[in-house]
Design brief:
- It contains 32 helices and 8 strands.
- By secondary structure, it is α/β, with parallel strands linked by helices.
- Among the domains are: 1-28 and 519-611, Leucine-rich Repeat Variant (Alpha Horseshoe); 34-244, TIM Barrel (Alpha-Beta Barrel); 269-313 and 339-362, no CATH class.
- Strands 1, 2, 3, 4, 5, 6, 7 and 8 form an 8-stranded mixed beta sheet that branches.
Length: 611
């Protein structure tokens, strides 16, 4: 009854607020003209360059995607940022030295979270088909020379030229007579966006874009949201979409991606012998694929010869004084002998096949083979042990992680330990996380520790998150934040304490990890609204807004009286994001006590609640 009496007053005051002569932050017509393009997909909570990330991005209202394109050994165009698949899949190797049939065997999602297990590296053709069906823009970042014409052919095949912007190598040579049509996307820094500059670009029938990467700061993003800008490129699309008040523009779905080859071979003695011949003879690619096929056959037939071949040695050529005399007779035999592949290559292919077969009887022979393996074979054996996932491999993997000289081998050992459920590995992973000189290895250890959920690693993960390091450390620090989000109370407390860190990148990473935690983080965030650090208070308000728990409304209303205007602005935004009558009351009461910049946030918040 008491609430009913208050409603007329609330409505009246709300109307007054709306007719105040205040500048509207983002005009409705502007929000309809700017296309938000997500870099690599929705990276806030999904693995890059995957359909899981693309679906998430589109379902929050993104109008385009920026993707990276590379070529495989067999001339297939795939999405991959790095020149290797090591960081974003559970496999290894340079993209241009791997067949696509091998790359698509690897998981491209579980490194980000178990909910993404089974994601595969997409083909560019599948992405173009996806973009055509969803009517979205694509920025193609071509990462290497020699694939320009093939890329253009695919674009023409899908009739996508008017939905494509070129970036990277292809954009640099667009004027060198290779047949590129369509509008060029001209990127202009936010601080250089003027009407004159925008007009010059538009007069040439090109489009204006601005890049807002590496920031989730609402005010900085708003600097780029000006009349005439056609495209905003961001790695925090949720923030840009929230500023523009976009709505979901696509229905949830799932692109159909082939997850692996399905050989039509049933398995018999003759087939086994033929596959073994193919593994040891002919081309390296044929050997690799024959090993894969052998791994799919009935294991009672395939595992014994695979284990036997693990110690394969190519016959050495010896000096023979009579060989010249017999050369004419044995010419054909010599040709056959020259077709034999190197022992190291055959052993790598066999180790890979044993890993794909996931038969635990191979663990012992694989471990024995590690003792004499070169680095490349060692990596293949470690990944095989990872795929098999048997605890018998844990001691040797820990030893390799802590003592091997090759950082790639140590990184593989960390990844392997992450896939084997065994708490005995926590100490070794934590020690390597702290002492290893390679950021790649540190990132691998952080990801592995996140999977264990063991609170003993909290301090080292927090130190990594707060590390004062450059770009090369960014991926490892991301992994540390997500690992802390999966550890429970101790991890949550570590992230909360990082909200007031000196480094803005640390605060940003901690914020989005806490958003991932969700409601369980709310009590800690509410307490942090009273933290001595203004950065921590502002970030806490932001995270509470994204989580959207109504328990935060009263504490956020208190934050509207904070002595820092940036905290008050974020509290106002958060209340608008959460919504509800109590949030409206708090916002209305705050209007008269705020400066103009904060009042704009208050007004925007009430507009969001649609009063």
């Amino acid at each position: 009854m008491k609430m009913k009496n208050k409603l007329p007053r609330i409505i009246f005051i709300t109307i007054i607020v709306f007719i105040m002569h205040l500048r509207i932050t983002i005009p409705a017509e502007l929000s309809k003209t700017i296309v938000v393009i997500a870099q690599h997909g929705s990276l806030e909570d999904a693995p890059e360059n995957t359909f899981a990330a693309f679906e998430k991005a589109l379902n929050i209202g993104v109008g385009g995607l920026e993707v990276d394109v590379r070529r495989t050994k067999d001339d297939r165009l795939i999405l991959m940022h790095d020149d290797t698949i090591d960081r974003t899949t559970d496999g290894k190797g340079y993209v241009n030295k791997l067949l696509y049939d091998e790359i698509r065997q690897y998981d491209a999602g579980s490194w980000k979270g178990e909910e993404f297990a089974g994601e595969r590296v997409p083909l560019l053709s599948d992405v173009l088909r996806f973009a055509k069906e969803r009517n979205i823009k694509i920025i193609l970042n071509i990462k290497e020379h020699g694939i320009e014409q093939k890329t253009l052919s695919l674009i023409n095949e899908f009739d996508m030229i008017n939905q494509i912007y070129f970036s990277g190598i292809l954009d640099k040579i667009r004027n060198k007579d290779i047949g590129i049509q369509g509008a060029e996307l001209v990127f202009i820094p936010p601080n250089e966006l003027t009407n004159d500059v925008i007009d010059i670009v538009h007069k040439k029938h090109n489009h204006v874009g601005t890049s807002l990467l590496g920031t989730d700061n609402r005010d900085k993003m708003k600097e780029g949201l000006v009349n005439g800008v056609d495209v905003i490129l961001t790695d925090y699309p949720s923030v840009a979409i929230d500023i523009l008040h976009y709505r979901t523009t696509s229905e949830p779905g799932k692109a159909e991606i082939k997850k692996g080859s399905e050989p039509n071979i049933d398995g018999n003695t003759g087939q086994i012998e033929a596959l073994i011949d193919a593994i040891t003879q002919g081309s390296p690619d044929r050997s690799r694929m024959a090993a894969f096929v052998l791994s799919t056959l009935p294991q009672e037939l395939s595992i014994p010869p695979l284990i036997e071949l693990l110690t394969y040695k190519k016959s050495l050529k010896r000096f023979d004084p009579f060989k010249k005399i017999m050369s004419a007779i044995k010419r054909e035999e010599k040709k056959e002998d020259d077709r034999l592949l190197s022992a190291s290559l055959v052993q790598r292919n066999i180790a890979w096949a044993l890993g794909l077969a996931k038969n635990k009887s191979a663990v012992g022979p694989l471990i024995i083979q590690l003792e004499s393996a070169d680095p490349e074979l060692k990596r293949e054996i470690i990944l095989a042990l990872k795929m098999i996932g048997d605890k018998q491999a844990v001691p040797v993997l820990k030893e390799i992680l802590l003592n091997d000289n090759d950082p790639f081998v140590r990184y593989d050992a960390a990844r392997a330990l992450s896939s084997i459920e065994n708490t005995d590995s926590v100490f070794a992973l934590t020690k390597a996380l702290k002492n290893d000189s390679s950021w790649m290895v540190k990132g691998g250890c952080a990801g592995a520790l996140g999977k264990t959920g063991d609170k003993r690693a909290v301090n080292e993960l927090k130190d990594l998150l707060n590390a004062d390091a450059g770009y090369e450390a960014s991926w490892a620090r991301d992994r540390a934040a997500w690992a802390l989000a999966r550890i429970g109370k101790g991890g949550t407390e570590a992230l909360i304490s990082s909200l007031g860190a000196n480094g803005i990148s640390t605060r940003r990473r901690a914020s989005w990890a806490l958003i991932e935690i969700g409601d369980d983080a709310v009590p800690y965030l509410i307490l942090t609204l009273r933290d001595v650090s203004k950065f921590a208070r502002k970030r806490s308000a932001m995270v509470l807004g994204w989580i959207g728990n109504e328990k935060a409304i009263v504490p956020l209303s208190w934050a509207l009286g904070d002595n820092d205007p940036e905290v008050r602005k974020m509290a106002a935004w958060a209340l608008g994001k959460i919504g509800g009558t109590k949030a409206v009351e708090a916002l209305i009461q705050a209007v008269g006590d705020q400066d103009e910049s904060v009042v704009e946030y208050v007004k925007e918040a009430m507009q969001r609640i649609n009063l």
